[in-house]
Amino acid sequence: MNNEFYTFSTDTHRGKNVILISLKYSQKNKEALRKRFPSVRWSQTKKSWYLPDLPVVRQQLGMEPKSMIQGKMMSLSATNQKAYAQMYDQLQLKGYSDNTKRIYMAEFYHLLKLLKSYPVDRLDSARLKDYFLHCVKKEGMGERKLNGKINAVKFYFEQVLHRPKMFFDIPRPKKPLVLPKLLSKEQVAKVFNATDNLKHLVALKLCYGAGLRVSEVVNIKLNDVDSARMVIHVVGAKGKKDRYVPLPEKLLPLLREYFKKYRPKKYLFEGKYGGAYSKSSVQQVFKKAMKIAGIRKKIGIHGLRHSYATHLLESGADMRFIQELLGHNSITTTQVYTKVTPQRLSMVKSPLDSM
């Protein structure tokens, strides 16, 4: 197929954003489209083929990507639209991760919506404190959410407007010490046994067996897996840091079986439209496996990484070594696992037991 023979347009279909492909219905066209996009559908009402409007689909079709700020900016008052656009441009120039950009833009948008037509640049320290108090008292915002909001607004005034740092002296809420949630080795095994899809099983085993974040798992490329050296190269992880982690020996035969079956082209795990597999898909896989395994703990897929670290600590691994494997900046972050190690707790005998 050649792009010269059809055009694309965006629309909504059954309540979802889609990309319409102006190509007549025929068996030949159907086969050609489905070779490239297995999930392409024909709409009788639109008289057109359509695909979901996703970034990876746009990339493969050679379409311009949807801007992160497109649409939202138009819902703001004309007074603050420029500020919103400048915020995004500066985040781009500073090379912030997509996740950080998404969070900062969402938090800044919240402020601009409340301001309506009042210019954000006119806010002083007192007005900003009032805004954060509003977030806590009126909207019931928690510590983590509020800290993210402070960081976003601080970025705008310091990095976009280049105001002095002392301009923005907002007291930070104290973060609660929340212990990581984890599974026992027996429970991890139950989760694996409850997963019958090969692709899903390999993804979950990488989360636990290599202690990877789900974002790191879906971003693994084929050339990041070095079976000769038995390592995985984790590229551009949190904080834009690379690191190597051991490739579990038991996982290698499963990886080879997986590769023969799925034949991925670029990423180890690829979505049905190509490109990297989504984090939400792996999270749903874990959630489903937990349910089938009959484990009722309220824990997300990140619990596999916590379990990896705790089980390493229990087996006698050095704390500094675990820090490097997990990619933590500070040893303090890693030391939290000492508080949840059952072996340490079992060494302490209650006075009640000696009565």
Automatic annotation (TrEMBL):
InterPro entries reported for this sequence? DNA_brk_join_enz, Integrase-like_cat_sf, Integrase_catalytic, Integrase_recombinase_N, Integrase_SAM-like_N, Tyrosine_recombinase_XerCD
Keyword Phosphoprotein part of the UniProt annotation: no
Q: Which domain of life is it from?
A: Bacteria
Q: Which residues form the Tyr recombinase domain?
A: 178-350
Q: Name one Pfam family in it.
A: Phage_int_SAM_4
Family label: Belongs to the 'phage' integrase family.
Alphabetically sorted, this entry's keywords are: DNA integration, DNA recombination, DNA-binding
Against PANTHER family, the record matches this protein to: INTEGRASE_RECOMBINASE PROTEIN MJ0367-RELATED (PTHR30349:SF41), PHAGE INTEGRASE-RELATED (PTHR30349)
Protein name from the UniProt record: Site-specific recombinase XerD
- Organism (species): Maribacter sedimenticola
Q: Which SUPFAM superfamilies match?
A: DNA breaking-rejoining enzymes
